[in-house]
Amino acid sequence: MGKALFFDVDGTLVNFQGKMPASARTALKKAQQNGHQIVLCSGRSKIQIYPWLLELGFDGIIAATGAYVECGGKVLHRHFMTGEELRTITALLNEADACYSAQAGTRMITSAKHRERQIARFKRLSDDEMIEQIWQHIELADDLVQYEDIEKLVYYESKMSVQQIRERLSGVCDVTESSFEEAIDDSGEITCSGIHKAFGMQKYIAYAGISQKDTVAFGDGPNDFDMIEYAGIGVAMGNAVEALKRRADFVTKGIDEDGVAYAMEELGLI
After folding, report:
1. At what angle do helices 22-33 and 259-266 cross, to 10 degrees?
2. pTM of whole model > 0.85?
3. SS3 call for 38
4. Each residue's pLDDT tens digit, 5-33
5. In 3-state terms, what secondary structure has residue 162?
6. Residue pair 183/161 in contact by the 8 Å Cβ criterion
7. Are 101 and 114 in contact (CB under 8 A)?
8. Beta strand pairing status for 138-140 and 107-110?
């Protein structure tokens, strides 16, 4: 039986200019031909994933850092933040003067003020296609507590450090450094406690009938730590943060050096 291969998107399959190496496309196709399942495992909500990437025919999708799990087009699991969790989180982020947005299944939700701050930040980091894909499904609202389908929050430009935010929200939710860009201390991702990429992997392989030892995960950022540690083989990209490389079983080349294809060849997957 083939393995289940889990791939982060930003910094792993797609670089921060929104480009995917041709070698990675070819490797994914070969892996499927060899009987392996290929699964996206992203911090993005499904609606934020590039349509052209979805068209490559992945067997499954884990989105919103594990809050959404899909296999063969069937939704296996969804997890949403409660009103009380949202009330606590947003109160702290407002205190920290952070700009933030919520990821829901079919859209992003933010205030008009926060939208402009975040778009200005993204324009300094990425190209117009990436900005359009992330921000085209936007809903403006000043209060998130009214929503019942929020999967996670992302925040930027906080006057509190990630560690301070993490400590203040301890027991309420999990906080990791931003995985969209090189980790800096004013930005992060907030998910429900216990909801992470490894959680999504567990849901997926239980449904697909694949054992943990027959999983391989590829990642580059802080929200990939649990995924890399959980997988039978954890692969860190050459451009990954150093803390992820230390957790990995195998460190491959960088994304723009055909790192995905190189690792898959070295591991005998293609």
Report:
1. 30
2. yes
3. strand
4. 999 999 999 998 889 999 999 999 999 99
5. helix
6. no
7. yes
8. parallel
